[in-house]
Design a protein that fits this description.
Two copies of one chain form a homodimer. With 592 residues, chain A is an alpha+beta fold. Among the domains of chain A are: 129 residues, Acyl-CoA dehydrogenase/oxidase, N-terminal domain (Butyryl-Coa Dehydrogenase, subunit A, domain 1, Orthogonal Bundle); 125 residues, Butyryl-CoA Dehydrogenase, subunit A, domain 2; 142 residues, no CATH class. Helix content of chain A is 55%, strand content 12%. In chain A, strands 3, 4, 5, 6, 7, 10 and 11 form a seven-stranded mixed sheet that branches. Chain A has a two-stranded antiparallel sheet with strand order 1-2. Chain A has a two-stranded antiparallel sheet with strand order 8-9. In chain A, strand 4 and strand 5 form a beta hairpin. The two termini of chain A are 43 Å apart.
Chain lengths: 592, 592
């Protein structure tokens, strides 16, 4: 059975040695000294390890069941949610005005990684609720906020996001769900939504559905979409629960993974709904919370890679099979631990260098969100807008790849349910799809984020890389292993970006055919930058005579591996990118 | 629900236009004119499509059950096996002396791809039986052959291969199963075997287990392993079945995929066994059939990619979502089919170019096996020995990747059980693990096959590439898109091979740390070569005024895509390879 070892030491290294959050001038960060964050991370890590992780295989095995409209979640899920609720974890980064803890995103993301790693399916229930909280916090009326937010923050009530319909996933312009205005100012919502995560469950007294629908007579396509609150139970003026609303779960999806989360067909049969924000501006309201939601999915991808790596590493240190080619390393045993074999190490180093680099990247993005939200810093907002599709797309594509690689370390055991490695693979697979497929992330990156403000934010990213290179050019320890490869990879990224600048609008298919490669190129350079920063931080700690030197030495070696073996992928992505649209578009549709 | 469209036209293109098997001087190939192979492929394709494919989701859903020692296979599996048995398909390439059809491997592999694509889990039952047939055919005594082979050929009896034990997978030297000699010349077999595919089932009257065990007092390690026949029911002298032998299924493995195949714990409690071949030479007997078995697993990888691609393509042509960026292509519909989007095409072209290139590669290898077996051609034997780990490792790694990419085309639907895309991913995943993990394939390639006969077979491969380039150097149509990139990629492969020649023995960790990259490098060049050959064949057909030109034009465009966008991966693999062992081995074991 898999276990979970919280990476609290590594998170502290990222937060304090690398990002130095305690020194940053972001309001609220002054609290985040190392003893404070340690206390939070240690406590969260214990819950992840002792409460959430043991339920992960249970959720996978039992799944959810639907009977007479009632969804039952797996054994123990409800009690685990109680633990999170009682500890205030469901509102960790929520507004204190509604009962939240008011912590910055950077800390909530660090905690979120551990919770998701331990049990991704379970954490989606509070995750979706948090999404509903964010949308209402940004766009709800004061009365709506008063009514709903405190209950969502505490997870007394759950929340959901209802976008997809059978005929429309990515293309929301095709939505058919109808919202008929009523005399009392409410709407009657009629339609079917599918793939609604946590759409119905037994863990909260009420569920607040946020539903995209069209008010008849409104504009065509995405410009005619509005956002509605549809509570499962009507809420009376005094806040107590009234009648059941005309919304029900019509079915549960059978799926590859995240079995512990109920993926529901939701039927709205003239349900009472309340408009959120302005009519026809629903999509904008939904997109408000997109940054955080997409960062959250990127962290999910990373989290499954992290727990998969951690378990594969333990397996490789324990399982004996064959002998090291350079001579027995455990002669007292019938064979050596498989960690001695270079190919097993290669796989583990791929995983480790991705996980630790990705962790730093995600937390850097989270710190930019904090800067943007808490300081109204438009540059931070612009930069993080650019990075978010990379965080989501790269960390989930590579997170899946790392989980598959971790599974491979086990040999045949990795294919059996017993060891748990295959569950991480099945669970993390969804992260490449939902909250916008990774193809959509790439499209968002090249068509929207890159050209935004005349390319200003991409320039800002390149400036960060350049400044780092310049600032450290005299550092001989960093030069060959970190600075030179980063410089070369960054040039590949700039070369690709120039193609967009020069041809983007004239040849849209070229941009779109190369979008996924561009996203990966960007991801590799981002991780290269994070590794260079971490190597510098580790070197500084060693130079300062740090007591426990293992983690710093390990950081430098792991970073070297990443820049030597992963970062050169930028040249391949650039090469593919430069082939343009022709090879991709050459075939007529019928020839596929 | 997924469907299966047999690629009979494409198989014919590989067999006849590209490999020109009907012109080859291999005994038995003279029969293989296009009308003959068409008849076989059409018939096999119909069985795959109509009999096997509909049972694929059934097998996944129902799985196998064990009750009172009896394993029940999924609904319909037994009837499907009857169809295969009645049509003589289970003995397609078996020796006519024992009731087989005597067809060459190249044709059996083409048929095998279709059968595996349609239902991989089901086809493992005859697949394992075929493995037992091959081992006994090569190493059994005449009496053993007479007794067992006709029944295995017809699948009246099933067969299994018993290697793995709880403490030993890859490292067979650790085997503990014991074979005590008896006065009558038989042995008493005692021990536990795990992960025995098709170890127990309800589809055959008897099951012939081939079991690796150690005769007490024999040499230590792999040199003391012998091979035994252990029938489920004892076979009387007249060939009729006698008492039940002391072998039983102690449990079924719960696993990620291939649910329709029973993966058994097999308990041998003093079961009667018969030595096959010489004592202590069991491993050699097992390895005899390794080429064919590993080719078969490579074909499994390819087959799942093929059926996954085929279904993803159909989805992309049908599902409408969004509009082409260059203007609506289906203005009469609410949106365009998603095939118009460059990123969707990119994914489909990745899959298509892998599937068609991989198919040609596998069938080329199969034709070399035929040449080796039927002509005692030592050069063919040497070359195919070198290629087999590439076929197995590359076609299963990339086959998995292609199945994941196909799943991605569906968006959210790909994650649901309903559409079947996720089953292909789960099923094909095992092919990267069994019959020697892909890490073992890479090790076999660099440590055994590459240096064999002083590197003669690798040189032969390079000569084939060089001869092709030379022979076609005046062909302007091939030059830029095929010859130049192939030449460049082949140079990368030669550069890596030179490192082995120069440093291989002195720095074994360098070779082993780079083994997986070398295997992939080799795989890319092999597919590049096959694509160049196919492009030439397609060009020749067009020049000769072929009537149906679509397939030929599609071949050239798909090949161009492969060489432009996939083949350049050789440079990345070479670069990784050249970093050597240091980055991989730098961390101390405790730092993982």
């Amino acid at each position: 059975m898999p276990s979970y070892t919280p990476p609290t030491r590594d998170l502290a290294f990222v937060l304090h040695d690398t990002l130095k959050i305690h020194e940053a001038d972001v309001p609220g960060y002054d609290e985040l000294d190392q003893s404070f964050t340690s206390a939070i991370l240690d406590e969260a890590g214990k819950i992840a390890r002792d409460v959430l992780a043991p339920l992960n295989p249970v959720g996978d095995r039992e799944g959810c069941t639907l009977k007479n409209g009632v969804v039952r979640t797996p054994t123990g899920f409800r009690a685990a949610i109680d633990t999170l609720r009682d500890g205030g974890w469901t509102g960790l980064d929520c507004d204190p005005a509604y009962g939240g803890q008011g912590m910055p995103n950077v800390l909530a993301s660090a905690v979120g990684e551990m919770f998701s790693a331990a049990n991704m399916a379970l954490m989606m229930y509070p995750g979706l609720t948090h999404g509903a909280y964010s949308a209402l916090h940004a766009h709800g009326s004061d009365a709506q906020k008063e009514t709903y937010l405190p209950k969502l923050v505490s997870f007394e009530w759950g929340g959901t996001m209802n976008l997809t319909e059978p005929q429309c996933g990515t293309d929301l312009g095709l939505i058919r769900t109808k919202a008929d205005p009523q005399d009392d100012g409410s709407y009657r919502i009629t339609g079917q939504k599918i793939w609604i995560s946590a759409g119905e469950h037994d863990m909260a007294d009420n569920i607040i559905h946020l539903v995209l629908a069209k008010i008849p007579g409104g504009p065509e396509g995405v410009k005619g979409i509005s956002l509605f609150i549809v509570p499962k139970f009507m809420v009376k003026d005094d806040g107590s629960l009234g009648d059941r609303n005309a919304v029900s779960c019509g079915g549960l999806e059978s799926k590859m993974g995240i079995h512990g989360n109920a993926t529901c067909v939701m039927n709205y049969d003239g349900a009472t709904g309340y408009l959120v924000g302005e009519a026809h501006k629903g999509l904008r309201a939904m997109f408000t919370m997109m940054h955080e939601a997409r960062l959250g999915v990127g962290v999910q991808g990373l989290s499954q890679a992290a727990v998969a790596y951690e378990n594969a590493r333990a397996f490789a240190q324990d399982r004996v099979q064959g002998r090291a080619v350079t001579g027995a390393e455990a002669p007292e045993k019938p064979a050596d631990p498989i960690l001695v074999h270079p190919d097993v190490r290669r796989m583990l180093m791929d995983q480790k260098s991705f996980v630790e680099g990705g962790r730093a990247f995600a937390l850097w993005a989270a710190s930019l969100i904090d800067r943007s939200h808490r300081m109204d810093d438009a540059d931070a907002e612009g930069l993080v807008s650019l990075l978010i599709p990379v965080v989501k797309g790269f960390l989930t594509d590579k997170g899946f790849e790392a989980a598959v690689s971790a599974q491979q370390v086990y040999g045949g055991s990795g294919y059996t349910t017993e060891w748990g490695a295959e569950q991480f693979v099945r669970d993390v697979r969804i992260a490449m799809v939902y909250e916008g497929t990774n193809g959509i992330q790439a499209l968002d990156l090249v068509a929207r984020k890159l050209p935004a403000d005349a390319g200003k934010h991409a320039m800002a990213f390149f400036e960060i890389v350049k400044a780092f290179l310049k600032e450290n050019e005299g550092d001989a320890a960093l030069k060959a292993d970190f600075l030179d490869p980063l410089k070369s990879a960054s040039k590949d990224l700039q070369a690709a970006a120039m193609v967009f600048v020069q041809h983007g609008m004239k040849a849209p298919n070229t941009a779109l055919a190369g979008a996924a490669d561009f996203l990966h190129l960007f991801g590799h350079v981002s991780l290269g930058l994070m590794w260079a920063r971490m190597a510098k931080a580790a070197g500084a700690a060693l130079a300062a005579g740090a007591e426990a030197t293992d983690i710093y030495r390990s950081k430098i070696a792991t970073g070297r591996f990443n820049l030597a073996r992963q970062l050169p992928a930028t040249a391949l992505h650039l090469k593919r990118f430069e082939t343009g649209a022709e090879p991709v578009m050459a075939l007529v549709a019928a020839a596929f």
